[in-house]
Every structure is written in structure tokens, then in C-alpha cells.
Amino acid sequence: MKPEELEVKAAAELAKQQAMDVRLVCCSSTGCQSSGAADIVARIKADITERGLAGKVQVGGTGCMGLCSKGPLVRMTCKGHEDVLFSEMTPDLASRLVEEVVAPVANGEEIHDPVGPLGAHVVDLHAAFFAMQERVVLSNNGHADPEKLADYLVHGGYQGLRKALTMSAEEICQEVLASGLRGRGGAGYPTGLKWDFAHRMQSDVKYVICNGDEGDPGAFMDRSVLEGDPHAVLEGMMIAARAMNATNGVFYIRAEYPLAVDRIEKAIRQARQAGLVGRNILNSGWSFDFDVRLGAGAFVCGEETALIASVEGKLGTPRPRPPFPSVKGLWDKPSCVNNVETLANVPRILLNGAEWFAAKGTEKSKGTKVFALTGKIAHNGLVEVPMGITIREIVETIGGGTGTDRKVKGVQTGGPSGGMIPESQFDTPISYEHLQQLGSMMGSGGLIVIDDHDSVVELARFYLDFCVDESCGKCAPCRIGGTQMLHLLDKIVAGDGTEEDIANIRMIAQAMQKGSLCALGQTAPTPVLSALKHFPSEFTERLKQPAAAEA
Amino acid sequence: MSEDTALDDVEVEEAPEDEIVVLAQKWKKKRGSLIMALHELQGRLGYVPRESAMKLGREMGIPLANIYEVLTFYNYFKLESPGKYIISVCTGTACHIKGSPKLLHGIENELGIKEGESTPDGEYHLQGVRCLGCCGLAPLASVNGKVYGKQDVTDAHGLLENVKRDEPMHVAAESNDAE
Questions:
Q1: A68 → chain B, closest CA residue
Q2: Rounded distance, CA A419 to CA A411, Å?
Q3: Who among A34, A217, A382 is closest to B92 (CB)?
Q4: Is some CB atom of chain A closer than 8 A to the CB atom of B71?
Q5: pLDDT for A445-491, tens place per residue?
Q6: Residue B173's pLDDT is what?
Q7: Could you give the CA distance from residue A135 to residue A335 in angstroms, rounded to a whole number?
Q8: ipTM of this predicted complex?
Q9: Under CATH, what is the fold of the domain A19-124?
Q10: Which of residues 157-176 of B touch A (CB under 8 A)?
Q11: Which of 3.40.720.10, 3.40.50.410, 3.40.30.10, 3.40.50.1000 is the CATH number of B85-166?
């Protein structure tokens, strides 16, 4: 395909969409699929065909629209009316929608109230949940069908790559560095810098690897991006490849995410067929292709050296760095491992420019961040917010608080590697630095809300138990330290703990932080330490009472 | 991931020999593809029987010890036949906070087995799993890949009744990241 053909294809698809009287898109991500989205799409399609409206009404899928707990969600674009989002749809409701709204509109009848019959299911698209969000990574969700390349092209797809093909590797690195984009997997290392290191390495073979091994329990950002906008991740990887002169791309995705794997494989096939992947991409003379590898249920494989070992078909155990993967990675060749969300940002940065991206967020944390908002929260789901927004705005305004008469106690960010942030600190802006100052971390984007009935001690124990179970066992501080710390926490939870146990927990934590081989062990104590820091009384209240101890 | 009708038949002990040969030939050409080959094998059989692992090792030229090293390191792989209904209770954080331990215990009591065990008749296998990524539907369980979201954690009996009614079939890509 020639570069100009991208526009031609996009224009053709856009014209087709604009010619439609009504466009109905149903969320086709795992959450809504689980609540029966496929049945709804099938019913709408059948109804439309039966009424002979196939040429006037378009029906399709789309990526996660955010309100996962209210699924399945259907978005309707009706000529002459504002878009409407319907929640908790069923096939029967969909039939009613077709009968009372879609069919009349398609038949040229005047409709005054396109939501009337399903009023109770209408979600206000102007409500704070949507209005306070800023969608960059999730911008195509709710609009484009992730299974259609043409839909991605309509929304500027592969224009970032096209631009990158006219730039030198140094220029791409510089552009991404200037944008201020930092790794969204948790650590927040500047992406442009990481690419630049790999670029400087001389090698005939280099790899760019997408880390889609989202193992943090309670987080589903990467799944949603892979499922909802697979071509954006592909495009981001190809731009990364240009920036470091990489020759091959590898997707490493959790096997527990079959739909994400399926979508990525489909996207690769479509792109290859269109000449966007493979040999002589967009007539540039550059060739690049992808390989997909599945994870197999090991949290430690989120660590880059363990991930690389797993891609090589070996045990997913980390190794000491240096040498860093950018020097010696997959098959001992220079490699760069990037997170899904990081990569999905890249095409937008190339397309809109570094300044556009750098205008969002705080001084050191640029752009937006996708969060999976779960736990004791009214609006459970996926949100994308500009960096610098306060935790309170996310939890209370966007999330709607607990939605019950209980009070919010705090949030856990960063999953098993992160920490608990008490409600009193909710006015802190979201940024890599601020969250670290609070004893937590940005992490990949899990944001779990707990209320005043939840025990911080038990939650800390839950996370530690997870890390102990997921420890690969290679290094002693993590393997032994974690287990011993868990014993002490168990003792405290059971009401048999002493002050000395808490002191020992702190001592072990320090040893694990300093001595563990990888981030799993180094950060495993964080939930416990942050709970001790912000909620010390919850621990002391559970200690064995002195009188009882003497008896 | 490939689907195969053989999955419905829990009696299958080993994939037909030539099937493993074909599978081994396919993955042998790609470097470091043992994990992918094991995924495909488990996708067909529901688990990795010892005989199949031995055969795969011979065909791919990989020592059995290496294969078992990988099989036992990664939670996803199963060494025993999981039964007709694989009940996976999500124990991720969002589900945990919404009471998934209670749901797990309730099912344990209903079936008279512990987490990680199968009923003697081979009908049910119960496992706690890591996050299934449907946190918006917490607390949830999945049975043979079909998700049962927003469960009442005090009503394990009701969940099992629904499962019996639905009779969900095995799905090749079933999430079984067992703890």
C-alpha cells in the first residue's frame, strides 16, 4: 500500500459511516461480553436485516466504554441527534430500540425523543464520569470497531507511523523524549530515553517487546487497550521499532486474556494484508513483522528480564541487571520492553506532536493515565484522566464515592507493589512523584477503593500472600523474607501479634527492598509498610493485649 | 489458540500420537516455543497428561525435566484432568474486597471439596484464580470460561444451580490461572 492510500481508505469508510442514518455500537470487550454483548449484537443485526435496513443502519462492536459494572453498553449515533449511551442492555431491549427508534429514523420518520422508550437505561454522557475524563489512549473506544482496520484508519490510524517513516531514529527518540512520555507499567522511566539506549546499540537484530502480561489482580487497563484498540498498540510498536532500528516485534500477552490475544492476532493479519506490516511497509523499503507469545500465569513475568526468559520458553525468573535488556535482551540481542498503554500513546504523540502531549499533565508527569477503578465504588470501570487530577476527583467525582452509606477509607494504587493512600491525602495530584511521596506508586493503573468496614491489615496480608505465592524463588530475600513476613502478619491478623513482630516486619521489609533481585521482591513489602505508615492504629489494635499475654 | 471438540470429552487421556507429532513439528521450527507448544497441547486436552508431555519432549528434543520445570513453574498448566465443570472463583483484589473468599468457602461446603480439588465423580473442579480482568463485575466466578458476574457471595447454592442449568462447555482458552 502506498502512503496516500491510507487517506483514500479512511475517507471511503468515513463516507460509508456518514451515509448511515443510525450507527449502533456495542461494547465487545471481555466485561460486556461476559454480560451477554454478543447476543445483543446478534439480535440487532437480525432485526435490522429482517426490516431491510441493512443499508441504513450500521451495527458493530467497539472497545470498552468504561462503565463495566453497567454493561452491556450500547452507543447509538442517530442522524440529527446527540449520541446516546444505553446501559444494562438485553436482546429484548435492543429489539425495542430497533422497533421504536432505529427503524423509524431509518425510514425517514421524525423522531422527537430518541431515548424515550429506554429512558431508564440512558447514561448521561455529560455526567462527571465522562466529562472529567480526557481520552487519548481510549479515544477510539466507543467509536471505532477494534476488529476493523478501516475504522482505525478513520480515526487517524497509521498516520503516526507514516510520519515516523519520514523521520530519522534520532528524531523519533527526540520527539518522544520531548513529549515527556514515561513508562505506564509503573516505574515511569522516560520512554524516549529507553529507546535511545537501544538505538545506540550496534546489532543486526534488535527486538521491541510489548509487555501485555497484566498480572496485577484488580487491574484491566492493558486488557482493555489490547481488546479495544489493538492497531494502536501495533502502530506504537512499529514506531518504537523505527526509533531503535529494531527488526522484530514480540507481543507477550497473558493467556488468561484470550480475547486480547485474538484481537492482536487479527490486527496483525489485517495490517499484514494491507501492507502495513511485513515487507516494504507503506512503500518505504522498511520491513518489520510480529510474533505473539503467551504468558502462563506468572506475575513475575511482568518484570522485563523474567518476561524475556519466558519468551525464550524458559522459566520466568529474573536475572541481575546490568546488562540491561537494551544491551542484552531477547536471545542476547538489544531489546526494549514497553508497556501496552505506553505504546498506545505513541501514535498519538507522533500524529499530534510532542507539544500537544506535553501540554497535558504536570511538570514531570505528562499526558493521561488509564485507571481501573474498582472495589467499593459506585462507578466501577475504566477511566482515563489527565495527570495532575486529584485522587479525590477520581474517587468522589468520577467514581461517585462508595455508592453506599459507608465512608471511603482509602485507595490502593500500584497493586501488590503499591501502597494504601488514606482519604486524608486524597487532595494529592496524580503523578509519579506525588504517589511515591505518599509511600505508594503509580503502578500500572489499578485503583482499588476500600471503605471503613474493610481492614487495612487484612488487605496488606492479601497482597503479601499474593507476592509470596508469585515469588519465583530465585533469590533468598524475596523467597524467605516474604514467607517470614507473612507468618508475622498472620499472627497479627489472628490477634497474637506483639510490638516485636511489627519491628521484625519492618526489618525484613528493609532486607527485601535492598536485597531482592527484582521489583517483585523489592516492592512486595510496600503494601504492608504503607498500611503501617498511614494506619498504625489498625495494627496496634490487633496486637495481643498485655494482660492476656501474661496469662 | 485453537479450539477442539475433543475438549468436551474428559475421558481423553492422550492426544492421538500423530497430533502431537504435528504439533511438535510446528513449534520445533520456532526458537523457544516450548511454552506455546504446551499451551496448544493443554488447549486440546484440557490438561497436560504425562504421556503427552513425554511424547512432546521426544518429538521436540527437549528433556522431560525441562518440560516439567516449565509445567510446574507456570500456574496456567494443569497436570491432571480437571473434570466436567471447572469452577474458577476470582480471588483478585476487586473480587476479594467484595467477598470472594466467602463465595469460595460456600462452594467448598456445597461440593464437599477444598479449593484445588475435584469431586470424586469428576463433575466439578474448584479453583481460586487470579484476576480475570472483569473487575467491573466483581465478585465473579467463571465456569468453563463462562463468566458469572455480580454474584451473591452468600448464595453458592444458587450459582451451582445456574451452572447446572446452563451446562457451559469447555473453552480452549479457559482462564485457569490456578493458585
A1: B136
A2: 8
A3: A217
A4: no
A5: 999 999 999 999 999 999 999 999 999 999 999 999 999 999 999 99
A6: 39
A7: 30
A8: 0.91
A9: Glutaredoxin (3.40.30)
A10: 171-173, 175
A11: 3.40.30.10
Compute the distance between CA of residue A468 and CA of residue A482 in angstroms, rounded to an integer. Answer: 6
| B51 φψ region: left (φ > 0), alpha (ψ -120 to 50), beta (else) | alpha
For domain A156-358, give its CATH number from 3.40.50.11540, 3.40.50.720, 3.20.20.140, 3.40.50.2300: 3.40.50.11540
Are B130 and A415 a contacting pair at CB < 8 A? no
More confident: A366 or B8: A366
The mean pLDDT of A196-218, rounded to a whole number, is 95
CATH of A368-450, picked from 1.20.1070.10, 3.10.20.600, 3.40.50.300, 3.40.920.10, is 3.10.20.600
Asked whether the domain spanning A368-450 has the same topology as the one spanning A19-124, the reply is no
Q: Do B35 and A294 touch (CB under 8 A)?
A: yes
Q: What are the chain B neighbours of A415 within 8 Å (beta carbons)?
A: 93
Helix extents (H) in A249-383: 258-273, 304-311, 340-352, 354-358
Mean per-residue pLDDT, A282-291 = 96
pLDDT digits (tens, 9 = 90+) for A402-448: 999 999 999 999 999 999 999 999 999 999 999 999 999 998 899 99
CB contact under 8 Å between B136 and A462, yes or no, is no
Cell numbers representing residue A75 in the block: 452507543
Distance between CA atoms of B160 and A183, rounded to whole angstroms? 43
Q: What is the pLDDT of residue A448?
A: 96
Extract the runs of DSSP E, i.e. beta strands, from A150-217. 207-212
Model confidence pLDDT, tens digit, residues A83-133? 999 999 999 999 999 999 999 999 988 877 777 778 899 999 999 999 999
- Give the distance from residue B98's alpha carbon to the nearest chain A alpha carbon, in angstroms: 7
The residue extents of the domains of chain A are 19-124, 156-358, 368-450, 456-540
Residues A394, A385 contacting (CB under 8 angstroms): yes
Contacts of B73 in chain A (CB under 8 A): 298, 315-316, 472
- B134 to chain A, any CB pair closer than 8 A? The answer is yes
- Residues of chain B with Cβ-Cβ distance to A372 below 8 Å are 135
CB atoms A220 and B134 under 8 Å: yes
The DSSP secondary structure of B114-136, one letter per residue, reads: -TT-B-TTSSEEEEEES--S-GG
CATH class of A456-540: mainly alpha
Mark yes or no for CB contact A313/B35 under 8 Å: yes
